[in-house]
């Protein structure tokens, strides 16, 4: 029943006990009474015994009940959030064990809540405010600003962190992130000592950090802070026996010029950071209106890219690989073009990086694979037995079902595997895992050839190169650009060509633009060329008209 407490129940119990004693005393007393005086005395004794019993029972039971009622009220208050008030003293006096248990319970709940709050507000790896906490604090600082002047947001993305995670494991990666957070704290303290105010640091996600400076005198200060961050993160990190060199791409946005709200500042700083990455990494960029326009254009191009795939707005052009001794094309590289309805013909350099960042490169790669397999089957039926090379990106090769999709395209179009060649960049070839290498070896056994593209732009491990299941290596244009005018360039190119040929692989030189370059390369020992000097990429019809003479297929080694 609501409103009935233990105290009221204890009072009722005491009344009942007193009444019972009164009745018993009265009954026992009547046996001794023979007149009215005796009956009166018995009644007085009964009333006195009942009253004393009631008082004793009520005091004993009601005191305990009152303590229990107090404990109930205190637990109800705790359920509504009051974990700080002390446990009432009467509970400790009457029920000491219950009082100790309640104090211990409240202390443990307070500790757990503090831990939950820390998990909700702070990143457990670095101890920095997490995204939600950082944004909340910056929004409060912006709302409380009263003075005029600048504030700045620095968006920091680590360069090379993924390689640490992949090679050393996530435990080492977490340790490295904690070290990065420590160096950012040192930068923040140094700037505070220099009068820039208390800087707020946060970890947004992964290897992305932010630093907010609430007060700055001018834009030059923002540049100085960015350089301090770069200098701090460029120093070598020592993780036990491992020495790691990192860098950072930094985007800077200033309040209120580049945004008067936190979402606007984050967007501007993010745009500037991506520009820094595209400019070569390990640099800082300030947000500008031009960058905003570029970002808007990239976003529009990304939307159009998905629509273009649905509308089949893409086409392939083919650039021949010429065997200089016979002048015949032995193969062609398939190059994608985008017939944009408003931008005319868009070259791959303008949309392939966007496709890789957005993930659309997988769908785009599937389109290229299907179209190349279809073309190879058609050429084979026409007696044109030339290989067609396809460029494969790291995003595509990272898909678990890439090889299954490739084989499906080959089977669906009944394309001869011997007419297909996969081009993989040098850096990607050096990082391929054993499972991927096994899949590539299986393709080679079926006749597909494998080529390393852009060789000379990465850092090849020579023993690793010898073990790779590769048939051909394409020398990057950067190695041959100055070969006709520079003795050093000739020496380097000659050494690279000799190395590749010594490993039993064919050499294809791409980017040949002059007769002088080609003559020098012939002296070095090159026989296969690709470049504007020989032929520009062209549509299938033009290609077949010029280079459709059949060329013999050379069997290749298996690994």
Automatic annotation (TrEMBL):
Pfam families referenced in this protein's UniProt entry, alphabetically: EAL (PF00563), GGDEF (PF00990)
InterPro entries reported for this sequence: Biofilm_reg_signaling, EAL_dom, EAL_sf, GGDEF_dom, Nucleotide_cyclase, Rev_trsase/Diguanyl_cyclase
EAL domain span: 298-551
Domain of life of the organism encoding this protein: Bacteria
Domain spans labelled GGDEF: 149-289
Coiled-coil parts of chain: none
Designated name of the protein: Diguanylate cyclase
Source organism per UniProt: Sphingobium fuliginis (strain ATCC 27551)
């Amino acid at each position: 029943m609501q409103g009935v407490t233990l105290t009221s129940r204890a009072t009722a119990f005491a009344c009942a006990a007193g009444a019972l004693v009164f009745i018993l005393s009265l009954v026992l007393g009547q046996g001794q009474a023979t007149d009215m005086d005796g009956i009166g005395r018995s009644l007085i004794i009964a009333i006195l015994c009942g009253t004393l019993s009631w008082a004793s029972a009520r005091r004993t039971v009601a005191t305990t009940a009152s303590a229990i009622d107090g404990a109930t009220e205190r637990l109800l208050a705790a359920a509504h959030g009051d974990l700080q008030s002390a446990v009432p003293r009467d509970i400790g006096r009457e029920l000491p064990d219950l009082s100790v248990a309640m104090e211990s319970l409240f202390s443990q709940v307070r500790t757990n809540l503090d831990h939950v709050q820390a998990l909700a507000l702070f990143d457990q790896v670095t101890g920095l405010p997490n995204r939600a906490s950082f944004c909340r604090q910056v929004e409060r600082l912006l709302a409380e600003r009263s003075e005029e002047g600048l504030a700045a947001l620095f968006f920091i993305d680590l360069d090379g962190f993924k390689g640490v995670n992949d090679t050393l494991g996530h435990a080492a990666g977490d340790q490295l992130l904690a070290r990065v957070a420590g160096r950012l704290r040192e930068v923040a303290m140094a700037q505070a000592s220099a009068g820039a105010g208390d800087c707020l640091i946060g970890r947004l996600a992964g290897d992305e950090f932010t630093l907010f400076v609430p007060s700055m005198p001018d834009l030059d200060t923002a540049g100085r802070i960015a350089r301090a961050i770069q200098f701090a993160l460029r120093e070598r990190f020592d993780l036990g026996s491992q020495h790691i060199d990192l860098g950072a791409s930094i985007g800077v946005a200033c309040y209120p010029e580049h945004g008067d709200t936190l979402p606007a500042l984050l967007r501007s700083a993010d745009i500037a950071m991506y520009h820094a990455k595209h400019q070569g990494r390990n640099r800082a960029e300030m947000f500008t209106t031009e960058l905003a326009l570029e970002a808007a254009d990239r976003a529009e191009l990304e939307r159009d890219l998905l629509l273009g795939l649905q509308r089949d707005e893409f086409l392939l052009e083919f650039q021949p690989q010429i065997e200089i001794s016979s002048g015949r094309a032995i193969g062609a590289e398939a190059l994608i073009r985008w017939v944009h309805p408003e931008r005319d013909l868009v070259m791959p350099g303008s949309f392939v990086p966007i496709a890789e960042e957005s993930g659309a490169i997988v769908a785009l790669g599937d389109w290229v694979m299907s179209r190349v397999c279809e073309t190879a089957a058609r050429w084979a039926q026409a007696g044109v037995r030339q290989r067609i090379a396809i460029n494969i990106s790291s995003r595509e090769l990272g898909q678990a079902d890439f090889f299954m999709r490739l084989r499906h395209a080959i089977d669906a179009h009944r394309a001869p595997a011997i007419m297909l060649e996969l081009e993989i960049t040098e850096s990607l070839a050096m990082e391929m895992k054993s499972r991927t290498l096994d899949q590539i070896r299986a393709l080679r056994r079926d006749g597909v050839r494998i080529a390393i593209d852009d060789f000379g732009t990465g850092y090849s491990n020579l023993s690793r190169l010898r073990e790779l299941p590769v048939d051909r290596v394409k020398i990057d244009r950067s190695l041959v650009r100055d070969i006709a005018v520079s003795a050093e360039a000739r020496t380097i190119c000659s050494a690279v060509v000799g190395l590749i040929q010594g490993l039993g692989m064919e050499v294809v030189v791409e980017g040949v633009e002059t007769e002088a370059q080609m003559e020098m390369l012939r002296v070095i020992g090159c026989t296969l060329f690709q470049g504007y000097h020989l032929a520009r990429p062209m549509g299938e019809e033009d290609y077949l008209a010029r280079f459709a003479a059949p060329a013999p297929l050379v069997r290749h080694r298996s690994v």
